[in-house]
Write a structure and sequence with these properties.
Blueprint (H helix, E strand, L loop, with lengths): L1 H20 L4 H15 L7 E5 L17 E7 L6 E7 L1 H4 L6 H16 L12 H19 L11 H8 L5 H25 L26 H12 L12
Helix pairs in contact: 4-5, 4-7, 5-8, 6-7, 7-8
């Protein structure tokens, strides 16, 4: 009996530890999805729907999958003409200790950018990776912050990083958005470091200058270039030349 009690205590302790270390809970992720529904459903035509982590015929519970992944896919029914936009964000991504509500929102905004971000496009017709990043911070994340009832109050910015905002914005609301968006972008930088082993920074832009855009479906800009793109969206600057050409 004593051994069984000890086992139960150990299991309970491990469960509590794992729960405490998870930055985002399932109920929070569901609330984030609900917020995006309230933002994007009014934008849709009568022949469109948007779904977050749809189970479909597979019945898969995406929250239970440990893979660090998010994706976007849309398809149109030949029979009904209904355009279905699907966004997936696996639990293995949301539960990372460095992840925040704003960081998850930024990832979802990127995926939404593939459907709503406009040109330039991939050969498949979806918005390119670079433009999806630019749309994420230039438009989508602003809408999320305005609609989200909670707040992500982590302040982890260096003075030099905060100066990027104060040099441009004076209004308190604009500064608040800028600081929050930079913190969200830093979760992407942490993901690039942990999952690709590539250090990036808000303060060291990619010096690459491309002469033509890559529209391949499999193309992603370099990790630092992606951070620069998020930053340019926040700071109202043009898409960076490390991937974009007029």
């Amino acid at each position: 009996m004593k051994i069984m009690q000890n086992i139960i205590c150990i299991v309970a302790t491990l469960f509590c530890t794992l729960t405490a270390s998870a930055a985002i809970t399932r109920s929070e992720l569901d609330s984030i999805f609900d917020t995006f529904h309230s933002i994007y459903d009014p934008k849709l035509s009568d022949s469109e729907v948007i779904q977050f982590n749809p189970r479909g015929t597979s019945g898969i519970d995406w929250w239970e999958i440990e893979q660090f992944r998010a994706s976007y896919f849309h398809y149109q029914s030949d029979e009904t003409g209904l355009l279905t936009r699907n966004i997936w964000l696996f639990g293995g991504m949301a539960r990372k200790p460095f992840m925040t509500v704003d960081g998850v929102a930024l990832i979802i905004c990127h995926e939404l950018g593939h459907g709503f971000g406009g040109p330039p496009y991939k050969r498949s017709g979806m918005t390119s990776e670079g433009q999806a990043d630019y749309y994420a911070t230039g438009q989508c994340l602003k809408d999320f912050f305005a609609d989200w009832e909670g707040a992500d109050n982590r302040e982890e910015l260096l003075l030099e990083e905060r100066a990027l905002c104060t040099a441009l914005y004076q209004h308190e609301d604009d500064l608040h958005y800028c600081f929050r968006a930079l913190n969200a972008t830093k979760t992407r930088a942490e993901a690039f470091l942990q999952h690709a082993g590539v250090p990036t920074s808000l303060l060291t832009p990619d010096p690459t200058v491309v002469t033509e855009m890559n529209d391949a479906d499999t193309y992603y800009p370099a990790h630092q270039c992606r951070i620069d793109t998020y930053l340019n969206g926040i700071l109202l600057q043009d898409q960076p030349r490390c991937w974009f050409v007029e």
